[in-house]
Design brief:
Elements lengths: L4 H10 L15 E6 L7 E9 L2 E2 L6 E4 L2 E3 L6 E2 L9 E8 L9 E9 L1 E6 L2 E6 L1 E4 L2 E4 L9 E7 L9 E8 L8 E11 L2 E6 L4 E6 L21 E6 L7 E3 L1 E6 L4 E9 L6 E8 L3 E2 L3 E4 L9 E5 L6 H13 L5 E3 L11 H14 L10 E3 L23 H6 L10 E5 L3 E5 L12 H10 L5 E5 L14 H6 L1 H6 L4 E3 L6 E4 L2 E2 L2 E2 L7 E3 L12 H6 L3 E5 L3 E8 L2 E8 L4 E8 L3
Parallel strand pairs: 3-6, 5-6, 25-26, 26-27, 29-30, 30-31, 31-35
Antiparallel strand pairs: 1-2, 2-21, 4-17, 5-15, 7-14, 7-17, 8-13, 8-15, 9-10, 9-14, 11-12, 15-16, 18-19, 18-22, 20-21, 22-23, 22-24, 25-37, 28-29, 32-35, 32-36, 33-34, 37-38, 38-39
Helix pairs in contact: 2-3
The structure holds fe (ii) ion (FE2).
Fe (ii) ion binds next to loops.
Length: about 575
């Protein structure tokens, strides 16, 4: 298990190390994941989750954007180590000299929790909610951030000429156990109806946290230059290739405490060993990560598919390790990944942590993912073939995994003209029938692709653990049969359930489509009802057993082996291409 920044800080503190010795943890808190959502040579996503703000340095003057503090997700520079350890921090910045503006007035606007003192060139100009005893200042009581308090300071002539003025603040918490701290000041010059922001929102300030400021700290600055605010991702496609920089986008995740960061690498060459590293300044770079691109001739590849993953952390870690050890090119996960039900973002953090740490190929490579949506990605965790709630019911899933069409998990992943994965939403955020025309078009456009797999969460041809999806049978199965899809992957039932090839609702070994199910990566398995299984003449084999499928393609066909959590291969089929 990866040790997070929190636990590392705690452990170091437990050993009695001082602030100055704190080791900067790797810059990526959760992840990274490599996500393939279309032809991976055209676009390939790298995704990670981190705190919403920049990590603040402790122990020495540094520079970072306002606001300053921790918790509540309302700070841009975040001091993870502040809680339980210190109650105040100092910030300062220089106000550039300006032409005299007669009649203009200086106004502060401050968002704060719990209290602060402000100085202009060393002279106190404002104070809120602060008491001093024995020369030590602290907040007098609680004051929650959220409202900007306006404080008139005086005429613009208070600003010094020459080198400009220094505006300084010290922010105080009520006590070390306080659940959060925020300090975010702006300075306005008001001239008639005009407002000129001298120090705007999010301005870069010099800050000092975790040790007391020196005498006269509030009269001067070091003139530190703002560094890169965001992450930086560099990648290369071979050990001697030059590093390239990739753009990074981000968006909120969960309740505002975290953000999802994403880089899209485009046009990567086939078969390349891609190396990338993520850095954040200040803080240094990550370990280099590697993953492998599909081969130029993808008619021989090995991948894994399974779904229904996170009930217990230990089983998830174990199955992810087992999957990595099989050295697959990628893993197709067919929904019910974190069981977050769109209300438990921490379960996604665990899911991402477990994957990044455990699903490693024998050489340490990251294993890329292709994902489908399942019912436990949505609020209410329901199956809604005809009245799906829309993507907002799965906002956590869709902020973590992007797709070519925004907030739409119905997509195709093509590996050249040899192999395509058609990914559908089985009634979780989209109705079944709303995807039928799209499916027809996708299958028709891939008439010459020898290997075509479809994948969705809710089974049409299960073994009685839950009702079979009659909607999928009606809408999609005829298209799978007409286009002679190589196999369909289903999940959701928390058992192993493989069908005979099916055509027109009956077993047809030659012209039918096999359905390989049914979702028991590492969840607690369900009991099988022998009578329900016996009623279903299409069931070739059903077992209450955690498993994934190991799929290997070759020029003439493919094999699918089922491997259980102990590493035992307990089922195998071999099929010639039917297309
Ligand atoms: Fe499930």
């Amino acid at each position: 298990m990866q040790m997070g920044h929190h636990s590392r800080v705690k452990r170091l503190l437990g050993m009695g190390l001082s602030l100055g010795c704190l080791v900067q943890a790797g810059p990526v808190k959760h992840g990274p994941l490599v996500h393939w959502n279309q032809d991976p040579t055209k676009a390939c996503g790298i995704v990670w989750i981190d705190a919403a703000g920049d990590p603040g340095r402790e122990g020495k003057w540094s520079i970072g954007p306002a606001g300053f503090g921790y918790a509540d997700g309302d700070d841009a520079t975040v001091f993870e180590g502040m809680r339980n350890r210190y109650t105040s921090l100092a910030i300062r910045c220089r106000i550039a000299p300006r032409k005299p503006d007669p009649g203009a007035r200086l106004v502060l606007r401050v968002n704060y929790d719990d209290g602060f003192i402000a100085w202009l060139d060393g002279r106190e100009i404002a104070r809120r909610n602060v008491v001093e005893s024995g020369g030590v200042a602290r907040a007098a009581g609680s004051h929650d951030a959220g409202k900007w308090e306006e404080i008139p300071i005086g005429p613009a002539e208070l600003l010094a000429g020459g080198e400009g003025s220094v505006l300084a603040f010290q922010g105080f918490n009520r006590n070390v156990e306080s659940s959060d701290l925020t300090l975010h000041p702006v300075l306005i010059l008001r001239s008639g109806a005009r407002e000129i922001p001298l120090i705007p929102h999010g301005h870069s300030w010099e800050y000092l946290a975790g040790s007391p400021p020196e005498t006269d700290w509030n009269r001067r600055t070091l003139g530190l230059a703002p560094g890169e605010r965001s992450f930086e991702l560099e990648y290369r496609t071979g050990p001697s290739a030059p590093w390239s920089k990739a753009a990074i986008s981000s968006r909120p995740f969960g309740f505002g405490m975290q953000r999802v960061f994403r880089s899209e690498l485009r046009g990567l060459p086939a078969a390349a060993e891609v190396e990338f590293r993520i850095s954040k300044s200040p803080g240094g770079g990550s370990e280099p990560y590697r993953f492998r691109m599909p081969p130029a001739d993808p008619s021989r590849i090995r991948f894994i598919t399974g779904g229904d993953v996170y009930h217990q952390r230990e089983a998830m870690d174990r199955m992810n390790r087992l999957a990595g050890r099989q050295d697959p090119l990628f893993v197709l996960m067919g929904g019910d990944l974190a069981y977050a039900n769109n209300i438990k973002p921490d379960r996604w953090l665990d899911y991402v942590d477990s994957w990044a740490a455990n699903a490693r190929a024998p050489d340490g490579r990251l294993i890329p993912k292709v994902v489908a949506i399942g019912n436990h990605e949505t609020l209410g965790a329901g199956y809604h073939p005809n009245d799906a709630p829309g993507p907002e019911a799965a906002s956590l899933f869709y902020s973590l995994f992007e797709f070519p069409v925004k907030d739409d998990a119905t997509h195709v992943v093509d590996f050249g003209n040899s192999l395509s994965l058609v990914m559908l939403d089985s009634g979780h955020t989209r109705n079944i029938s709303a995807q039928t025309a799209w499916l027809r078009g996708v299958l028709e456009a891939r008439r010459k692709t020898p290997c075509l797999f479809a994948a969705y969460h809710r089974p049409a041809w299960g073994c009685g653990t839950k009702d079979d999806s009659v909607e999928i049978r009606r809408e999609w199965s005829p298209l799978f049969e007409q286009h002679r899809v190589s196999a369909v992957f289903e999940y959701d039932h928390h058992v192993f359930c493989r069908s005979h090839p099916i055509r027109n609702g009956a077993v047809d070994p030659v012209n039918g489509v096999p359905y390989l199910g049914a979702g028991a990566w590492s969840v607690d398995v369900r009991k099988l009802d022998a009578r329900e299984v016996a009623r279903r003449l299409w069931v070739a084999r059903a077992e209450a057993r955690n498993h994934f499928y190991l799929i290997e393609t070759r020029p003439g066909g493919f094999s699918a082996e089922a491997m259980d959590i102990g590493g035992e291969v307990f089922d195998r089929i071999d099929r010639a291409w039917t297309r």
